[in-house]
Amino acid sequence: MLSDNARVIAALEKQAAKGASVETILAGLRKELSLDAFGLLMISLPRKDLPALSKLLPRMASDETQRNFTGNAGEDLLKQTASFVRALAYNYAALRNRSLSDAKILDYGCGYGRITRMMYYYTDPANLWSVDPWDVAIDFCREAGMLGNLAQSDYLPKSLPAPEKGIDVMFAFSVFTHTSRSATDAALSAMRKHIADDGLLAITIRAPEYWEADPQYAADAKRLQALHAKEGFAYVPHLRDTVEGEATYGDTSMTLDFLAANYPDWKIVQTDWSLADVHQRYVFLQPA
Prior knowledge:
By secondary structure, this protein is an alpha/beta fold. The chain is 43% helix and 20% strand.
């Protein structure tokens, strides 16, 4: 981290020690730090040299927890996270002619709060909703002292624990790369109830190249790619507990045409892609 950034953080540590609110501290960090510098601070907490900030802001998950959720950890994972967050901020501004500042944001499938933490760079915790169907994920968030509105959702949700038509920005990163058809249907239907009329949803989907890139599917890659091409959707369930008799979590790829044809309540308005995560495509949707 640059020395200028370290001086800013040290000054805010003194403010926090004197009782400054989390909103005041976040405003100071947003004003003085870049997104990446902010992210470096967030993944470094708690720190012995920053006791007041460490008490005020959430503790980062262990490297083991990060890898269990994402397959990566630390600064390498932060680079991927920042790439998506920048794409989200850029496309929201381009498509909605306003920034993420003070937006009401929902993180669907928040895990341990990896991307939620980066949303503090744009908006205060009161404007953030972090939901996940896995109780263990929500427990990780609570134990870390995550800020904002945390809640467990259903695996096949009919609605979400968030304001109806009150969310400006929703994102589901690396969610629909893992959900069964019924779980995908349910989630997109539920999310539609909570997005503002002029809101934006960002999701990630996998391209067919994923099946060759993942060694566990190498022997079956041609069949899965053919299924992807024919049906627009390919899914392999993992051996987990079932929901209503179905394994709703696994590995998934889908096409843009599949999305457009099967979810008429949503309209695809933009796509994006990053070298930091080559097997996921970012898709931006608005209410139709």
